[in-house]
Model the fold of this input.
Amino acid sequence: MSKVVVGMSGGVDSSVAVWLLQQQGYEVIGITMQIWQDEEPEQSSENGGCCGLSAVEDARQVAWKLGIPHYVMNFKKEFKEKVMDYFVEEYIRGRTPNPCIACNRFVKWEALLNRSLGLGADYIATGHYARTEQLENGRFALRVSATSAKDQTYALYNLTQNQLAHTLMPVGAYTKEEIRLLAKKLELPVAHKADSQEICFIPDHDYAGFIRRERGQVSEPGNFVDTKGKVLGQHKGIIHYTVGQRKGLNLSLGRPVFVTSIRPETNEVVIGTGEEVFTDRLICDKLNWMAIDGLHGQKRQVLAKIRYSHKGAACQIREIGKGQVECCFEEPVRAVTPGQAVVFYEKDYVIGGGTIR
Done:
């Protein structure tokens, strides 16, 4: 019997994943990852999400209900280095990071998988809405989930071939409604638990406040400028802004304006019109190939998503240098944001992706 470690976040998806794997004949072990940095129990409990003490207790109750062993593993060091520090550094550099992608790649998979294999497990599993498949070319790839409304392949594009080979995602074949229904039928204590929406380590959404607390420094004010360099006003620090932003600029120019780019080298936030937020081209690096092992000098027509909520847009991708890919869209896309991921799809499969420069 194959052994699988399920990363139990205390939510309904990973809880039902345990039962689905049991039905498939796996020996299941539940692991909840302790990643929250606060040492005060009341603080950890309040923050909840997938990191707080309440998540640990919910996962423990589900494990008892389903009759599997459950353990809590400390991943605070990995989470601090690979997710929180990365988040802060990117904002200071004028970029907009995606901490969930970093957490998936380096904590929920790399760190958890290494420890699980060390315990004699054959696989790890999660409650993500995605599917894994080995293709005819021998490579492992993500396939979009059965429900496009909950598909999470975008946030998982950076997984390696070795990680995918040891990954099970049973929830990906179901809709969210079907998973909720199963949880109710099984009488799981988390059947009606709401989904976590915010970044788990910044539950109050105050990114700038978090960065100040982490680094003990205040982002210096600077100039708002237009695309020609004309000064339009003063901003309160680049960590407060992201490309495409309209609200919170406090600029009275008599027309709607948006952030079109951020220049950390001069501490400037560039302001433009709605039309200037659109572009038909981007460059990405830090590439990870999944369904294919690279472009090998060939152009390729794909569907590209430039953020989690983006439906995707048709574009052609080509190599323009070592480790860099240019994406040319058939029609302009809005708010291409440095630091975010661009993920390439062919039909239902992730072929790869990278970080927008």
